[in-house]
Amino acid sequence: MKLLWKSGVRASLAGSWLVCLQLSLVPAVQADEEGVFDYFSANREMIRNGVQAVLTCNGLFTSHRTLEQVFDQELAYMVRFGGRVGTARSGAYAIDEPNRAVVVGGQGQGPEMTAAFREGIGCVIMAPDQGVDDIGALPVFNWPLPPGDPATTPWPDGDLVKEEPLPAGIDPVALQAASDWAFDRESEEQDTLSLLILHRGAIIHERYADGVDMDTRTRTWSTAKSIAVTLIGMLVDQGKMSLDASLGLDWLPEVAAGESDPRDEITLRHALQMSSGLYPVDSFGMEYATGSGLAYWAGASSAEGAVRRGLIREPGTFWDYENYDTLLAVFAMKNALGGEETYHRFPREALLDRIGMRNTLVSTDRCGDFIFSSQVYSNARDLARFGLLYLNIGVWSGQRLISEEWIDFVRTPAPATAETGNFYGGQWWLVPDDRTDVPADAYATAGNRGQYVVVVPSHDVVIVRRGLDFGEQGFNRWDLAREVLKAIESRESK
Question: What's the CA gap between 300 and 415, in Å, rounded?
């Protein structure tokens, strides 16, 4: 096995393939300068290395970026975890080209964490005691893409786009000004990769940063949640799931024999509206190293993590943005679909292949469960297709894929947000009550680092912005919509 090693990281990690169980917490071994014992430092090191392994692996083998580009942009996010391990020249990491894997850690930099690219999935993070010798046990999807060449298939089913003059009602000067607003940011922490604008289904503006083109796939982060809710909606439309039925999950830890579990009161509606009432692990100052970060970056089971929280509030009464609420709904989707292969094929067969999203990969954890709260890799055009499906009220090429009732659900404010601005629906973000400079009918996906798909029905517009923001970030999707809409007349004004 030929390896490109940096600073002597071991070729493989000793360790066996373990059952997919939630990782246990390991306390730190020292106190900080104030004498306060840090119980989570070991977890943070593990997760830091896992973050870098996953982002580097996907940057190289999913996005096809150079190592220098990965360090400059993808890994700028590592400021959140205390900085990058090494540089593009050297450090405590290794690139395994033949296995399309990345190992980060060792040499006093915490445990070695391995991420490996898998066909049809993208990069999968492994447990701390696993290495390149265990890659063969990871899931892989070797299903062929649908027939046809996207380069010769007209938009939106393919990528063949005819250059045509802007339609009436669109101001080219204002449109370019909006584009410049998106790309020419004062903050170095706001890094726009692409901007794509649709009007009545046609591409009227498309722009990419240096080193990026229309084929470049990057992580959607939480925009994935809006794709997940679309798939779930299809099953609700088919009568295979119900918004107001119990999720029907086997919770952990189990209650005593003969007792009822209060978590059975959580419905699909509660989970999709981020109002499960379960103990928060990703928000409100909780330690990320004990929550979904373990599944994202440390090889823990995403399904087990989702069902291992206790109920602390009445479901539906309190809004709490939690990755695990999305994963609860995805786990219920898996149960509704039945077999593993049906579940694994469902995103492609039900949605992605049907609307031409050929460049999109839905990643899994090492146990084969989709991490649909964050780990989807896609490009700007595929996300524009996704937004167009919603702009067309769930119809694609004359076929209804999503019901109008489901679109109404995702656009209806979650009751638990009423007192704070009605800003969230069902895995989609809504224009807050205090925003009067953006049409109230707009709604959007939103992912970390600036991943936005904004749908504005009143203007027949879809806006896609991809970014690699870091630090405080601060790029605002509604500000972007405001700037773009300055160039486009509404339906009512025509």
Answer: 32
- Ranges of H-type helices in 240-353: 268-272, 293-297, 302-306, 323-337, 340-347
Q: Check if the beta carbon of residue 233 is closer than 8 Å to that of residue 212.
A: no
The answer to whether 113 and 53 are in contact (CB under 8 A) is yes
Encoding tokens for residue 26? 């390991």
The pLDDT, as a whole number, for residue 296 is 96
**Domain boundaries defined on the chain:** 4-137, 218-493
CB atoms within 10 A of CB 419: 8
pTM value surpassing 0.70 = yes
Q: 107 and 7 in contact (C-beta within 8 Å)? A: yes
Q: Is 16 exposed, middle or buried (0-12, 13-18, 19+ CB in 10 A)?
A: exposed
Residue-wise pLDDT for 6-49, tens only, equals 433 333 333 333 446 444 444 444 555 566 788 888 888 999 99
> What DSSP letter does each residue of 400-452 carry, written as one string?
E-S-HHHHHHHHSPPGGGGGGTS-B-SSSEE--TT--SS-TT-EEEEETTTEE
Give me 482's structure tokens: 């405001």
The CATH fold assigned to 218-493 is: Beta-lactamase (3.40.710)
Q: How far apart are CA 345 and CA 9, in angstroms?
A: 37
- Measure the CA–CA gap between 390 and 402, rounded to whole angstroms: 9
Give the pLDDT confidence of 361-380 residue by residue, as tens digits.
Answer: 999 999 999 999 999 999 99
Alpha-carbon dihedral 160, 164, 169, 171, rounded to 10 degrees: 100
- Residue 353 and residue 345: Cα distance in Å, rounded? 10
> Is the Cα dihedral 314, 315, 320, 322 positive or negative?
positive
Distances in Å between the Cα of 118 and the Cα atoms of 58, 62, 78, 365 are 10, 9, 24, 11
